[in-house]
Write a structure and sequence with these properties.
The chain is mainly α. The protein has a domain of 209 residues: MetI-like fold. The chain is built from 15 helices and 2 strands. A two-stranded antiparallel ribbon has the order 1-2. Strand 1 and strand 2 form a beta hairpin.
């Protein structure tokens, strides 16, 4: 078992090491985001006044800018503001005010984090559910037709950008099926609490962003699984298993697929980060309310609290996904030792 004998001590050393790395990573991410926005020309006070008086012909004075800065606490030194923000996050899990939307960052996260998480995780699950079994099946086919077809689809998935696929699906549904697939729920449900009816409506809208986000990951992992499976099928232990009378899917799952899937499992965190990075462009086309767009707007508005809060949450999920992938690799193949990871 994973936590028995010598592995018990190795597991706790592994967990302690990962926890220390996670804390240092989150500190580094939050500090870099605050510092990068601090180095950008202008700050939120200037952008807010520009939006307020844009097109009115009113001249913005330095006194007005200084007044807004003082009201928002932006007139204090950078390290003081960052230290106060970090202390509130650690002691109260309070990410501070989100200046752009005039609410707290916590409230903003509560409203959009679930949508973002479901979209990214759903796209990853779709990718793995398709790529792993199809990759195994194609690797076992002697016919070159299936292999060539999968290779063609994989190249298309890697070559076509997600925004192009989103546009095609959007126009197809709008002009051919006369369906409105923008947003994650219909207008009637957007301000309503969650219910079974709202969940069904969400599923009716979410399949397109899930397909678009999962397209490139499916193509990449399909090629990966196919290549790894072919490599495993040529090894001596598979020949020995067949000589003992083992065959069919039970043999494939128990031996070669078990080893071939480990490199894919180890990239779960990478796939999560890639899907989140691709989400803002897809969200802009399909009008999705998710955190990627909020992060982009926070950077454009120099809203340090919002940008740091979103990235700390997303980074936490990526760290957790990497930790989970390591545990899954050990569970799939007990010969892999945690102390070596």
């Amino acid at each position: 078992m994973l936590l028995s004998g010598a592995n018990n001590e190795a597991f706790w050393r592994f967990l302690a090491g990962r926890l220390i790395v996670a804390i240092l990573t989150l500190l580094a991410v939050s500090f870099m985001i605050y510092a990068l926005i601090e180095l950008m020309p202008g700050d939120y006070a200037e952008r807010e006044l520009f939006r307020k008086y844009s097109g009115t012909g009113v001249t913005i004075t330095q006194a007005e800018i200084d007044q807004v800065r003082a009201n928002l606490g932006l007139d204090r030194p950078f390290l003081v503001r960052y230290g106060e923000w970090l202390w509130n996050v650690v002691t109260r899990f309070d990410f501070g005010p989100a200046f752009r939307v005039e609410t707290s960052v916590n409230t903003l996260l509560q409203g959009k984090f679930l949508y973002t998480f479901v979209l990214v995780v759903g796209a990853m699950l779709f990718s793995y559910i398709v790529a792993i079994p199809v990759g195994i099946w194609v690797a076992t086919r002697k016919s070159g037709i299936a292999d060539g077809l999968v290779t063609l689809l994989s190249y298309l998935g890697l070559a076509l950008p997600n925004f192009a696929i989103a546009l095609v699906l959007l126009m197809l549904n709008a002009f051919v099926f006369n369906l409105d697939v923008t947003g994650l729920v219909s207008q009637a449900y957007r301000d309503e609490p969650w219910s079974f009816a709202k969940f069904l409506d969400f599923l009716g809208h979410a399949y397109i962003p899930l397909l678009v986000l999962g397209w490139s990951t499916t193509a990449f992992q399909l090629q990966t699984m196919r290549g790894l499976m072919k490599d495993e099928l040529g090894k001596l232990y598979v020949t020995a298993a067949r000589a003992k009378g083992l065959s069919g899917w039970p043999m494939l799952i128990k031996y070669p697929a078990r080893h071939a899937v480990m490199p894919i499992v180890s990239t779960i965190g990478f796939d999560f980060a890639r899907s989140f990075n691709e989400l803002p462009i897809v969200a802009s086309i399909l009008v999705l309310g998710e955190l990627g767009q909020e992060l982009l707007l926070a950077f454009l508005d120099a809203d340090q609290n919002t940008a740091a809060g979103i990235l700390v949450c997303v980074t936490s999920i990526i760290i957790a996904a990497n930790f989970l992938s390591d545990l899954l690799v050990v569970a799939i193949d007990p010969r892999v030792r945690l102390k070596g990871r």
